[in-house]
Amino acid sequence: DDDDDDDTTTTSNLLFPWRHAPTLPDRVLAHNDYSGQFNPTTRDPYILRKLIAARELNVSAWNVLPIPFYRHEWECDLANGFAVGFGFAMEELWRSLFRVPVNNENGIISIDSSTRTTSIIEDTLSSSSSSPNEENNNEYLLEMMDKKLLRQYQTLINPTELQFKFSLQPISSHLQHIFAVPLPGLTREIVEDNPYIRGSIYKLHSSYEENGFDERYFDMLTDFAKYNNDSRDTRTVIAEAAITCLEFFQVRDRDSGSVVMGMEDEEEEEGEEVVHIVRFEVVTEEKSRDNDDDDDGGGDERREIGNWKITDVDDLLEGNLFH
């Protein structure tokens, strides 16, 4: 896809794909949630989009309505869970890339890849040359992180040329954006299996804008329904959390030993307060009637919520859109 190529051009030139900054990216400050340029729901008020997403998470409308200087409990719980998930994912990511132990003590994740020996480097080179799809071997990491995002890190980071010293301690988290993909049944997995329907929202919207509900519009809708027939009761919810961390970040050239990115050693003890914008995605589906007894009175309108997965970190993939 041409769009996919465009997403990575700005990151492919980075020495190390990590944003270490005290403020959020400009697009977040401008209230751009990367929901898609042609997403028709972007015209809706933010509170309406939030209500639709919350319903998919079994949250009542009363618990979504804004209250000045107050955050609803479900938002806090979700954001805190995202912070924990982000830490676990980064721990496993650095371990898989640099092949060294990663410490996790009292919520502080740390790594120093300079402890890796030459023999381990040789083992890494050997395994990577024999396993071009090595990311698929780490099932635990793929449960937490989208494979496209993982592949981006694997492509941009060369552990044989760089030494990485890093510590991360999430200290707070805030739910920045949340919305549901407008077309029920449209999931990342379906689009990956059927690339033809990528951009379905844009195509349907453009057709309607040009000619209304004409024959072409319904032909396109029928084509989408063919792929969507088995999953029409599912829906994708996308959320972004602003995760504030105390962080030490340093990249050295392995040969010269000089710091080429990040902080100096004397800054390690205190670290710096930084903010990461982390994008998560989950698929919900209608709960079967067999489970109605467990839904606390919600009847068959209650939703089953899948496992949240990280799809982008600090806009490395500019939202990693699939719809």
Helices and strands in order:
Elements: H1 2-9, H2 26-29, H3 46-56, H4 73-98, E1 103-105, E2 108-112, H5 118-130, H6 139-144, H7 147-156, E3 162-180, H8 188-193, H9 200-211, H10 215-228, E4 234-253, E5 259-262, E6 272-286, E7 303-305, E8 309-313
Antiparallel strand pairs: 1-2, 2-3, 3-4, 4-5, 4-6, 6-7, 6-8
Helix pairs in contact: 9-10
Structure description:
- The model is unreliable at 1-13, 118-125, 127-136 and 295-300 (pLDDT under 50).
- The protein has 10 helices and 8 strands.
- It has helices at 2-9, 26-29, 46-56, 73-98, 118-130, 139-144, 147-156, 188-193, 200-211, 215-228, and strands at residues 103-105, 108-112, 162-180, 234-253, 259-262, 272-286, 303-305, 309-313.
- The chain starts with a helix and ends in a 10-residue tail after the last strand.
- The longest helix has 26 residues, at 73-98.
- 32% of the residues are buried.
- Strands 1, 2, 3, 4, 5, 6, 7 and 8 form an 8-stranded antiparallel sheet that branches.
- A hairpin with a 5-residue loop joins strand 4 and strand 5 (259-262).
- It is globular.
- It is an alpha+beta fold and 323 residues long.
- The chain is 34% helix and 23% strand.
